[in-house]
Amino acid sequence: MSTFKLKTIDNADEKAKPILQSAKDNMGMVPNLFAVMANNPSLLKAYTSADETFRQDSGFSSVEQEVLLLSIAVENGCTYCVAAHSFIADNQSNVPEEITNAIREGKEIPDAKLQKLSTYAKEVVKTRGYPSEDATKALKDAGYTDKHIAGVITAVGMKTFSNYINHIANTPLDQAFEGRKWDK
């Protein structure tokens, strides 16, 4: 059970209402993550703005985006985000299930470039932004650039918002994501 009130379009702060309405219009639902974040419109707005620009401007393909977000969520132990990003990867981003399952299970990804991206993202999280020079070199040797490294930071930042609020609020998993439920 959530320790936070799940806000709705009807009872949310005026600044949160349009964001919740947009989510409902675009996804057909207001995810519980957004309902929890709506307790503070600054968090909801920061998260949704970061997600939008990450999706549009990070320089990563949709598959790479989900590999990053799922890898970070696994590293942070966020059961809600692992389930949600597994669902998104499977149903919207066309990520092969063998890739999402490998990330979820802590196994080698069957694509060397994506494995290096996942490893780098997890190292950035583990080291709190101090990845080794060898890790950065390995990422660049795989074909990624400084733009991509900065994009990894965007992904870590937005997942920090969502992972931490989910940990604190004990955000209930939406029914839509139940098929990809995950336990640490």
Report a brief summary of the structure:
This protein is mainly α and 184 residues long. The protein contains nine helices and no strands. It is globular and about 50 Å long.
Layout of SSEs?
Blueprint: H1 17-27, H2 32-37, H3 41-57, H4 62-76, H5 79-91, H6 97-105, H7 112-126, H8 133-141, H9 146-169
Helix pairs in contact: 3-9, 4-5, 4-6, 4-7, 4-9, 5-6, 7-8
**Chain oligomer state:** single chain
Return the structural class. Answer: mainly alpha
Write down how many β-strands occur, each being a DSSP E stretch of 2 or more residues.
0
Share of helical residues: 55-70%
Note the total helix count: 9
Low-confidence stretches: none
Taken from the alpha-carbon principal axes, the silhouette is globular
CATH fold label of the domain at 61-180: AhpD-like
Task: Give the integer mean of the pLDDT values.
Answer: 96
Largest sheet: none
Give the CATH level 1 class of the domain at 61-180: Mainly Alpha
User: N-to-C terminal Cα separation, in Å?
Assistant: 18 Å
Which band does the percent of strand residues land in?
A: under 5%
Helix-strand string: HHHHHHHHH
CATH superfamily membership of the domain at 61-180:
AhpD-like
Task: For this entry, give a set of tags.
9 helices; AhpD-like; mainly alpha; about 180 residues
Please give a structural write-up.
The protein has nine helices and no strands. It has 184 residues and is mainly alpha-helical. The protein is globular, with a radius of gyration of 16 Å. The relative contact order is 0.18.
